[in-house]
Amino acid sequence: xxxxxxxxLRPLExxxxxxxxxxxxxxxxxxxxxxxxxxxxxxxxxxPVAIRQIHSMQSLQLHxxxxxxxxxxxxxxxxxxxxxxxxxxKENKINPYASCLPILFQIPIFISLFYVLRDFEKxxxxxxxxxxxxxxxxxxxTQPTRESWGPVLIAVYVASQLTSTWxxxxxxxxxxxxxxxxxxxxxFLPFILGFPAGLMIYWLTTNLWTTGQGIVTRRLMxxxxxxxxxxxxxxxKAEAAPAQAAAGATASRPTAGTGAPRxxxxxxxxxxx
Length: 273
Description:
about 270 residues; mainly alpha
């Protein structure tokens, strides 16, 4: 591949090429369905990262009131606000960057697949002359997405991207973040028109996986429980039992000036003894 020689992603390009070739030659899939299978394999490998992402977003949502209180308390001092927030993250074992991990892992794969598909017709396809580059008879995986039935893929992409990003945005507290993540798919449209249709198939499959994964995990995964807040007036458990025992003993012991009155015997002269 022409630009892949000097690219640091060349090893990843080679891996993707080998996987696609194996799926096509050994499994018997077409090149387009090999891309779909490759996407599923990648997303299965990223499931542990996705679970961490969901747990992190749930934790951020549950602790949002406390973080908002910290922001309000130190709104005049940005540096102090950042320090207190980082301290809060550490104490509550929150990773605010975990939600970005799946995307960060997929970016190099996306770029590498772009290079693979760009030179696919020249370097890989000639080795398999009986194969086809068509997908469902609609698009050629090496042609730009804007050609032939590619706009249909774009329409499905927009719908799937909005659905998957909407599922992510529901866990975000900032209204600006929710708007931004919903607008980004539309903003990317001018750029993806020139992408190979095979790359759009990869992206579309990724969005469908993200949507299904979001629905399933939100139903099956339990929400993390926020530990109860401790009050300074509440004694520790170790001290509570002795304190209660001492209080019980004190209550059962008669105090001075209490109890039944003592009867005083009188002498025969009318005087008390």
